[in-house]
Amino acid sequence: MEKKIKVLFLGDIVGSAGRKAVKELLPELLKKYKPDFVAANGENAAGGYGLTEKVVEELFSYGIDVLTSGNHIWKKEFYPYLNKSERVIRPANYGEGAPGKGWTIYTKKNLKLGIINLEGRVFMRPLINPFLVGKKLALEIKKETPFILVDFHAEATSEKIALGYFLDGLVSAVIGTHTHVQTSDARILPQNTGYITDVGMCGAVESIIGMKIDQAIEMYLNMVPRKLEVEKTGKLKLEGVFLELNETGKASFIENFRFIF
Ligand SMILES: [Fe+2]
Ligand SMILES: [Fe+2]
Question: For a Cys-Cys bond, which of 11, 84, 204, 243 suits 200, CB 3.0-4.6 Å?
């Protein structure tokens, strides 16, 4: 029988509420899906902004293999860890000399999974072109493994869909993150790349993308920049996708999930 590689990917984990959702529900998902690899976006896992070594270790202890990130990863205290880690990556399309790595090849059970992290440029900062950086890295990683996931951390749905088609056939999946709102378009693209515009988030349900409602509304009323606090009360949700890849790295199945408890 053909060997299938199974992968779980969780959306942005927001603060302690998001970590709790992972702690409570990931064990059940591991039983249900029996994934070979588990990846998640961790850019908001420590207090809503960035990561710390302690939070990373906590998330790894729940069964996450690799953490991707995005625009919120940049905390100076975390740079030494980011520089040495092979399991926590940041978007690859930042300039030369940026701390950390933009991609990794993670080995588990004799299988190698390549993961590339990219950040969008529409309604975001003018980074290096994620299309060109992504394609170059994918061609490089393909020499070592056919299994390649791309976390495209971006705001605009159009930019995300465009990258999906641009990398279709070259990578196993293009998975969108950053908006924290799951889209209903999980599918296999024509050249067998799994795709979803945004996988969603892990965190508080009654929140504004994981943060306190009153604080976010206040910010939209007075437009004064402020740091928002993570919503920790009420129901929690865990959102992500499950993928099956065949031995050539092509996606044969993708399914999005959302659990609320
Ligand atoms: Fe995020
Ligand atoms: Fe983000």
Answer: 11
**Range 95-110 average pLDDT:** 96
Q: Quick one: pLDDT band at residue 188, thresholds 50, 70, 90?
A: very high
- What is the token pair recorded at 65? 């293999």
> Chain centroid to CA 178: how far?
8
Nearest ligand for residue 42 CA: 1
Query: Which residue has tokens 């409570």?
Result: 24
Portion of the chain with pLDDT greater than 70, in percent: 99
Is 153 a known active-site residue? no
Give the class (CATH, top level) of 5-260: alpha beta
Per-residue CA distances from 248 to 34, 106, 134 (Å): 20, 17, 19
Residue with tokens 């799951």: 182
Which amino acid type is present at position 170? Answer: L
Residues 106, 69, 35, 232, CA torsion sign? positive
- The full set of domain ranges for the chain reads 5-260
> What b/e readout covers 59-91, taking b as 16+ CB neighbours within 10 angstroms?
beebbbbbbbbbbbbbeeebeebbeebeebbbb
CB atoms within 10 A of CB 136: 12
DSSP state of 163: H
As a whole number, the mean pLDDT across the chain is: 97
pTM beyond 0.70, yes or no: yes
Q: How far is the CA of 44 from the centre of ligand 2 (A)?
A: 8
CA–centroid distance, residue 230 to ligand 1 (Å): 12
Question: Would you say 243 and 6 are in contact if contact means Cβ atoms under 8 Å apart?
Answer: yes
Q: Please, where are the H alpha helices in the chain?
A: 15-33, 53-61, 79-84, 130-141, 157-166, 213-222
